[in-house]
Automatic annotation (TrEMBL):
Keywords: Membrane, Transmembrane, Transmembrane helix
Keyword Membrane listed: yes
Name of the protein: 2653_t:CDS:1
Stretches that traverse the bilayer: 661-679, 691-713, 719-742, 762-781, 836-855
Length: 877
C-alpha cells in the first residue's frame, strides 16, 4: 500500500507563513487537532513555541477553527518547550481539549521536587474551562481518555523514590463545567522487584486498567553471579525463577480502589528488555489485548499478542514475528477496528505499518512519508501533506477489513437499524430498533436523540430504565427503544441518535459493546405541515427547592433578565420560536409547598412558522418534557433545570370560561338585591331603603375579607400579618362600639328602650353583624319594608357615635384592606377569582363608605329646616 492513493479530504491555507506541524491528535467523533509551531532565531531550540500555542481544530465536517493561546495568560514557562517539549495533548468529549504542562520555576527542569504537572481544559473555541494540579512532576507518566462519552481521563505516573504506580482520575461534565479530581494507588512493588514499565488500558465502558511490567532482581543477581560453587539444586532454583511478569488491575467507574491484581504473562526468559505495549480493546469482540514486546540484542524481533478479559481470563497468547526489521524501530501496536491488528514502526524516517489479519498472518505493509494519526473507530488513518509554505492537505487511507459489516454505522456489531440512516420517518414516531449481529444484554449505557443542526438533546434513554427492551420475536439481537411523543415533534427536521458504548454488553464476558457516534445514525421527519390557528394559553410553572434558591440569587443580580433567559431555554427545548414563550416578571411563592417554592406564569403564543406546533400540541409536548425532564434537555440547561417536574403545567382558561358560573351567581345576586330594594321602596317610600344596598355591600365585603385571609392570606407572606390585623382589629373595635351604643341607648327611658324590650334577639343579632361595620346598626332605624323591627329610634348622640365610628372604620379597615388587595393583585400570577372579587368588593365598599360619609357630612352641615322629631314607626303593613 502507498500513500499516493490517499484521498484529499480538505485543504487549508494559513494566513501567516512560517508554521510547522508539531503534533496531531484525533477524537472519537472524527475531530482532528493539529498543533503548529514556528521556529525562533532568538532561542537555540528546534521547535520552541512563540508566546502562544497554536491549534487548528478540524471538525468532522472539515471546517477548520483556529485557537491561539497566550502562554503569559496561562503562566506557562518557556522551559516546557525549550529545549525539550513536555506538553501532553488529548481530545475530550464533548468538544474540549486537555493539555498539560509543568510549573517550572527555573530553567533547569526537574532540578527540584517542587514542580507539579498542571492540567488545562479548553473548549474548541479557545475558552479556558478549568485549570488544576494533576500531581508531582515526573516524565514517567501517561494519560488516557475514557472510552465513555463525557467520561474524563486518567493520569498514571510512577513516583521515582519508591516506584509506586499512582493514578489521578478527572471526571468531567463539560457542558456544566463540572470537574471532579480523585487520586489513589495502583501498585507498590514487592521486595526485590522493580517496575520496568506500565501502560493504561482504556475500556469502552469508562473503566480503566493498568498493565504493569515487573522484573525480579533476585533472579538477575543469582544468574549474573559466579555460579561455580552452587549446587545443582540451587542452579535449578535460580534458573526457574520468574524474571519478567505482567500484572493487570482495573479501576472501576465509581471506585477509588483498584481490583485485585491478576497475572497476564510471566516468563523466566532473560531478555534485555520487556514491556507491555499498546493495550486496547478489540472492537469486533470487545476482548482486551496487550502486545508484549521482548528486546533481544537491543532490537525486538517479535511480540506476544495476548487476548484477555477484565475478569482475569487469558484467552490466548500468540507470538507475532515482525515482518521487516532491517533499520527498523518498533513504535506501537494497535488493534484494528474491523479485525486484525497493526504494528507501527519507523524505517529511515519513513513510517512503516505492517498489517496482520485476525489469525495473526501478515497481510500488507503501508509506508507513509508524512505525519499521520489513526482514526480510533473507522479503520482509517489520516495524514498531512504540505502544498506550499502556507497550504496543506489532509488525506485519508482505509485499511482492509477482515470482517464484514455495515461500515455506515462505523460499528462491526450493528447489523441494521429502524429507521435506517437517511430515512424519512413519521411525526411523533414512538420507537427505534437496533439489530445486532449477535446476542446482547442490556447494560448501563444510554441512547441519546439530538436535533442534527443544533445538537439539542431531545431524549436520553438508559438501558436499564424500562424504556429499552428486547424484541421477544427475534431473541436477544434486537433492542427496541421507546420514544416519547414529544421527541420527534417537528416536521421536515433532521435528528441523529447517539448510542453510548456500554448500552449493551456481550453475554459471555460482560464486556461493553461499542456504540454509534454522533451524526452517524441520522434521519428526518416527514414534511407534514398543517394550518395553525391564532390562540394563546398560559399556566403556572413551579421551581424546585434548589431551583428556587438559585433563582432568588440570580434574579436580583441579573435585574430580572434571568426570566427572559429561562423562557428562551424552554422555547429552544420544546422547540418553538422564542417569541412564542413569555414568562411574567412577577413571581410568588406556592403556599402549598414546604419549604417555599416559587411560582411563575408562562404564556404560549400562536405559531409563527409552518413547522411549529399549534397551542394544544405545544402544551402536550411541554407537559411530557417536564414530566420526564431527567431524560431530555430541560435537566441539562442551567435555568430549565430549576423547574419542578412534579408540578404539572396546566393551562388556565380565560377568565370568562373559568369563572362564568361564579359571574352568573354574582349577577343573579345583584338582580335579587335590586329586586329587594324595589320591593322595600314599594312597601314604604319614606323609609331609608338604600340601607339595603349598604347592608349587602358591608356584609359581602366582610365575607370576602375573611375568605381572602383564609384562602390567600399566605400567598405572599409579607401581606399575611397586615391582612390579619386589618381584619381582627376592626372586628374588635366595631363590636365594642356597637355594644356600647346599644347598651347606652337602652339605659334611657325612651322609645328605644321600648323597642329593645320588644326585639332583644334582633338587637343581639345586629350586635354581631355590627362587628363587620358599626354602620350595620343604621338598619335598625331604617324603617325598610315598614317593619317594626327596623323602626328603632336612636338618639342624636348615638347617631353621631355611629357616624364617627364608621369614619374611623374606613381608615383602619376599608382603606388598608383595599391597599393590601391592590398590592396582591399587582403581584399575583395565579388569577384566582376570590382575590379578584375581594379587590372589586373592597373597592366598592370603600367607595360606598367614603361617599356615604361625605353625604352625611353635607347633610349635617346644612341649615336645619325643621326640628328633629321622634320617629313614630310603622306597622308591618
Amino acid at each position: 500500500m502507498s500513500d499516493d492513493t490517499a484521498e484529499i479530504m480538505t485543504s487549508y491555507t494559513e494566513e501567516i507563513s512560517g508554521f510547522q506541524f508539531f503534533g496531531s491528535y484525533t477524537g472519537r467523533d472524527g475531530t482532528i487537532l493539529l498543533r503548529l509551531v514556528r521556529k525562533s532565531n532568538k532561542i537555540a531550540c528546534d521547535y520552541p513555541d512563540e508566546p502562544q500555542m497554536h491549534f487548528r481544530v478540524v471538525h468532522p465536517t472539515w471546517k477548520v477553527d483556529k485557537i491561539d493561546l497566550s502562554l503569559k495568560s496561562l503562566n506557562i514557562s518557556i522551559t516546557n518547550f525549550c529545549p525539550t517539549d513536555y506538553i501532553l495533548i488529548y481530545l475530550l468529549e464533548p468538544e474540549a481539549i486537555l493539555f498539560t504542562y509543568f510549573d517550572f520555576k527555573t530553567k533547569n527542569p526537574f532540578s527540584t521536587k517542587t514542580y507539579n504537572e498542571i492540567g488545562v481544559i479548553i473548549s474548541y473555541a479557545g475558552e479556558i474551562l478549568t485549570q488544576f494540579p494533576m500531581g508531582e512532576s515526573t516524565l514517567n507518566r501517561d494519560i488516557a481518555v475514557s472510552g465513555k462519552y463525557n467520561g474524563g481521563f486518567l493520569r498514571v505516573f510512577m513516583w521515582p523514590a519508591n516506584q509506586t504506580i499512582a493514578w489521578t482520575r478527572v471526571s468531567t461534565i463539560i457542558e456544566k463545567r463540572e470537574f471532579n479530581v480523585r487520586k489513589g494507588i495502583f501498585y507498590t512493588p514487592k521486595p526485590k522487584e522493580s517496575i520496568q514499565s506500565f501502560t493504561i488500558i482504556p475500556k469502552l465502558d469508562g473503566e480503566f486498567g493498568c498493565a504493569i511490567t515487573t522484573f525480579n532482581n533476585e533472579a538477575l543477581d543469582a544468574i549474573s553471579s559466579n555460579t561455580t560453587n552452587v549446587t545443582t539444586a540451587e542452579a535449578i532454583y535460580y534458573f526457574s525463577l520468574t524474571v519478567w511478569k505482567v500484572y493487570v488491575t482495573f479501576l472501576l467507574v465509581d471506585s477509588d480502589q483498584p481490583t485485585n491484581l491478576f497475572t497476564l504473562y510471566e516468563t523466566s526468559t532473560i531478555w534485555r528488555g520487556f514491556s507491555a505495549d499498546s493495550c486496547s480493546v478489540q472492537y469486533f469482540d470487545s476482548e482486551l489485548v496487550c502486545f508484549l514486546v521482548p528486546i533481544y540484542r537491543d532490537i525486538p524481533f517479535y511480540g506476544f499478542y495476548v487476548r484477555f478479559t477484565s475478569e482475569g481470563a487469558v484467552n490466548s497468547t500468540r507470538a507475532i514475528w515482525f515482518h521487516n526489521i532491517t533499520d527498523w524501530k518498533f513504535e506501537a501496536f494497535t488493534a484494528s477496528f474491523s479485525g486484525g491488528f497493526r504494528v507501527h514502526g519507523m524505517q529511515n524516517d519513513i513510517a512503516v505499518i505492517d498489517i496482520y489479519n485476525i489469525s495473526g498472518e501478515y497481510n500488507n505493509t503501508l509506508k507513509i512519508s508524512a505525519h499521520y494519526t489513526m482514526y480510533p473507530n473507522n479503520n482509517c488513518l489520516w495524514f498531512i501533506k504540505s502544498n506550499g509554505p502556507q497550504e496543506w492537505h489532509i488525506k485519508t487511507l482505509k485499511f482492509p477489513n477482515f470482517i464484514q459489516y455495515d461500515e455506515r454505522f462505523q460499528n462491526p456489531d450493528i447489523n441494521t437499524t429502524v429507521p435506517d440512516i437517511g430515512q424519512t420517518i413519521s411525526l411523533r414516531t414512538r420507537s427505534l430498533t437496533i439489530t445486532y449481529n449477535s446476542k446482547v444484554n442490556l447494560s448501563t449505557g444510554n441512547v441519546s436523540i439530538y436535533k442534527y443542526d443544533s445538537d439539542l438533546l431531545r431524549q436520553e434513554t438508559f438501558a436499564l430504565g424500562n424504556i429499552a427492551q428486547y424484541d421477544p420475536l427475534v431473541g436477544y439481537t434486537n433492542v427496541t427503544i421507546d420514544v416519547f411523543k414529544s421527541t420527534f415533534n417537528q416536521p421536515d427536521t433532521e435528528y441523529y441518535v447517539m448510542v453510548n458504548t456500554g448500552f449493551v454488553e456481550r453475554p459471555g464476558n460482560h464486556e461493553a459493546i461499542y456504540g454509534i457516534e454522533r451524526n452517524i445514525w441520522h434521519f428526518k421527519t416527514e414534511s407534514n405541515f398543517k394550518d395553525t390557528h391564532a390562540d394563546t394559553a398560559s399556566g403556572l410553572l413551579r421551581l424546585s427547592v434548589n431551583g428556587t434558591n438559585d433563582f432568588e440569587t440570580a434574579y436580583y443580580s441579573s435585574g430580572g433578565v434571568i426570566i427572559e433567559d429561562l423562557a428562551k431555554q424552554i422555547a429552544e427545548i420544546i422547540p418553538v420560536s422564542s417569541s412564542r414563550i413569555t414568562i411574567s416578571n412577577k413571581y410568588q411563592y406556592d403556599p402549598n409547598s414546604h419549604p417555599s417554592q416559587i411560582l411563575l406564569r408562562m404564556s404560549i403564543g400562536q405559531a409563527v412558522a409552518l413547522n411549529e406546533s399549534d397551542i394544544p400540541d405545544v402544551i402536550e409536548d411541554f407537559q411530557e418534557l417536564l414530566e420526564y425532564s431527567q431524560f431530555n434537555g430541560l435537566s441539562r440547561q442551567t435555568y430549565t433545570s430549576w423547574l419542578d417536574n412534579t408540578y404539572k403545567f396546566v393551562p388556565t382558561d380565560d377568565f370568562w370560561n373559568r369563572y362564568k358560573i361564579a359571574i352568573f351567581v354574582v349577577c343573579a345576586a345583584f338582580i335579587l338585591l335590586i329586586s329587594l330594594y324595589l320591593f322595600a321602596r314599594y312597601k314604604n317610600r319614606e323609609a331609608n331603603n338604600f340601607v339595603i344596598l349598604n347592608l349587602v355591600i358591608i356584609l359581602q365585603d366582610f365575607v370576602f375579607d375573611v375568605l381572602f385571609v383564609v384562602q390567600n392570606g399566605r400567598d405572599f407572606e409579607v401581606l399575611f400579618i397586615p391582612s390579619v390585623l386589618t381584619l381582627i382589629v376592626p372586628i374588635f373595635l366595631n363590636g365594642t362600639a356597637a355594644l356600647f351604643i346599644l347598651l347606652s341607648e337602652n339605659s334611657r327611658e325612651d322609645k328605644f328602650n321600648d323597642w329593645f324590650r320588644k326585639f332583644p334577639q334582633i338587637a343581639s343579632i345586629f350586635t354581631i353583624f355590627a362587628c363587620a361595620d358599626v354602620e350595620f346598626l343604621s338598619v335598625l332605624s331604617s324603617q325598610i319594608f315598614g317593619l317594626d323591627i327596623f323602626s328603632a329610634v336612636f338618639s342624636e348622640r348615638a347617631e353621631n357615635f355611629i357616624f364617627w365610628a364608621s369614619c374611623i372604620n374606613i381608615l383602619i379597615e376599608d382603606l388598608p384592606q383595599f391597599i393590601i388587595r391592590l398590592i396582591y393583585w399587582r403581584q399575583n400570577i395565579t388569577y384566582d377569582i376570590l382575590p379578584n372579587i375581594a379587590l372589586v368588593s373592597g373597592a366598592v365598599g370603600l367607595l360606598a363608605a367614603v361617599l356615604g360619609r361625605m353625604y352625611q357630612i353635607t347633610v349635617r352641615c346644612a341649615p336645619r329646616k325643621y326640628q328633629r322629631t321622634s320617629n313614630p314607626g310603622t306597622t308591618d303593613g
